[in-house]
Amino acid sequence: MYDAFVVALSVFVGVAFHEMFGMAMFSRPIVVAPLTGLLMGDLQTGLAVGASLEAIFMGVVNIGISSSAEPALAAGLTTAFSIQMGGKMSAIIPLAFPLAVLGLQMLNMIFSFVCGPWASKFFKYARNADEKRMITLHFGMWFVHFGLYALIPFFAVLFGSNAVKMALNSIPTVIMNGLTAAGNLLPAVGMAMLLRMLWRKDLAVWYFLGLILMAYLKLPLIAIAVIGAIIAIVVAQRDLQFKKIKEVAPKAVPVTNKSSNQAQNQEEEDFFE
């Protein structure tokens, strides 16, 4: 019961605070998973699951109708099942993305069929300038929407952990090894999705520089991040200098041309005199 409540609370905090504070990224796995692990008494597993899932969902950003998955539900359930199974997260990670896709559909369904019918009330209170009731209804729907959504991981952990454990134990070793290999590949897929959105030919050289630093020089991620920050500062300073030069150059050119024209006119006058 405690584990189910903790997972539901973590998912609620993730999705509800993410929306309340204006897409504040509380629903990211790097937030929800460590919070779940901390409350369940295994922060290390929570951090490991959060880092693994964040690499998968790093390129997933839901904007308007361009939505694909809701990572908070996947992060909470993956962390809970991994802890309950003794840290065996490699077998659970491949299930994260299907859980996230299902979670987004459930979140939209609750919004459409539970919160949607109350939209007319908002218009009524707005026409009557009833600010108090509008605020009450807004936060009431906010709590109902994400509270109902949090019941999904609650019952999933309450009734599903033993079933998941039995199902995983019954899977043949060959298939389990395949799931583990797929789980190891998913972070690369997530990075590829992000790289596809950010890829630019003029920035490609920095990508290959980072690849060389990690693959061949074996530098840790913190060192590469520091090097990247230094490069960014140097490039920003250079661009700022170029900008100042461009702002000064147009002002100097007319003065030079004017002086040149005056000298040429003076020479012509002296010649004809």
Which keywords apply here?
single chain; 273 residues; mainly alpha; 0% strand; flat
How are the secondary structure elements laid out?
Elements: H1 2-20, H2 29-39, H3 43-57, H4 71-84, H5 96-115, H6 119-127, H7 131-170, H8 173-198, H9 204-215, H10 221-272
Helix content: over 70%
SSE-based structural type: mainly alpha
Q: Termini, distance in Å?
A: 107 Å
SS element count, helices: 10
Number of strands: 0
Query: Mean pLDDT, as a whole number?
Result: 77
Quick take:
By secondary structure, this protein is an all-alpha fold. The protein has helices at residues 2-20, 29-39, 43-57, 71-84, 96-115, 119-127, 131-170, 173-198, 204-215, 221-272.
Walk me through the structure:
- The chain has 273 residues and is an all-alpha fold.
- The chain has ten helices and no strands.
- It has helices at residues 2-20, 29-39, 43-57, 71-84, 96-115, 119-127, 131-170, 173-198, 204-215, 221-272.
- The longest helix is centred in the C-terminal third of the chain and has 52 residues, at 221-272.
- The mean pLDDT is 77.
